Description:
Two copies of one chain form a homodimer.
Chain A: H1 9-17, H2 25-44, H3 54-92, H4 99-140, H5 146-171, H6 177-206
Helix pairs in contact in A: 2-3, 2-4, 2-5, 3-4, 4-5, 4-6, 5-6
Amino acid sequence: xxxFADLQVSAFLDALANPEPTPGGGTAAxxxxxxxxxxxxxxxxxxxxxxxxxxxxxxxxxxxxVLSSVRDRFTTLADADSVAYQQVMAAYRLPKDTDTEKAxxxxxxxxxxxxxxxxxxxxxxxxxxAMRLASVVAEHGNRNAVSDVGVGIGLLQAAADGAIANVRxxxxxLQDESFKTSxxxxxxxxxxxxxxxxxxxxQSLES
Amino acid sequence: xxxFADLQVSAFLDALANPEPTPGGGTAAxxxxxxxxxxxxxxxxxxxxxxxxxxxxxxxxxxxxVLSSVRDRFTTLADADSVAYQQVMAAYRLPKDTDTEKAxxxxxxxxxxxxxxxxxxxxxxxxxxAMRLASVVAEHGNRNAVSDVGVGIGLLQAAADGAIANVRxxxxxLQDESFKTSxxxxxxxxxxxxxxxxxxxxQSLES
Lengths: 207, 207
């Protein structure tokens, strides 16, 4: 499978639109996150900051460096999500004629679903880290780029919501109760922090 | 300028992240819309629909065809938004040493800002048309693809919100009151319909 980041935008869109199950929503969410982070990087990299102070310039420069690494995580996760889902489908296609086959298939499906839950959980974590930095960029970034920061925040929220939808759908088929509880708790904790950081960022944009 | 759809995804992300003002949030919003539409096209193109009825299959097939044309509009708008913003910047750079130059510059800036408002307004309209189709796909699409439809809806909402932010920022610098009023009314009308269609679509996904 090619890395999605290496595809042309038009070919990536065609791959999403194709009835084949991958790439799907999990990959699209990760790419949306990478787009949102890229807009924040643009604003953090502008020559003029909000006040023009040196302290502010350093805060934005540091934010831009961390955002760049978060963007790399998103592009890696775009691929990881599709690979994980392909493994789920491969597990479901295993033979189930004998009791031994049935038992082996069940274990393989559960392992694949666990891995397929880990990918969107990581996308959610990356969205959380990016949203924290969005509040820094919103506070200190050039006022002329307010709408770019706003679009970036919207894309990160779409990435987070998409990741949550994918975690929940996989959890529904999982049997390991302790993993399910842990994943659900992570989703709740991170999504609350994302909502708070998004609200803080939007308030900075309006002030 | 290359068509953004022709760039590699990684090069498009780099272009967004670059401190150069284009491509910015308006282009990112249009590409997010194209991604959301692509996910809906995938679900509308699946061999299995929700009930499996022939009527449903036809509704999804028709939705997919219209979604494909909306996607083309989004990719065209991704380019149009950047071109329009470059023309705004070019107008602001016109000389303003004499009264004649000042008057000519003012007209050029207002014309360019009007065109730069038209692009995100069109992105908003395309998001509205796509969200209407999202409710069709949510109602009739295969239950196994619920999360893909959900991510698609989130991306369309991000595209719409991004477009609205860009319309509003341009309107702020415009002087033609009748155009401003008409654009604001359009934003209100379309965004209310989008919210209603998104709510209907989400309800179908949960039922």
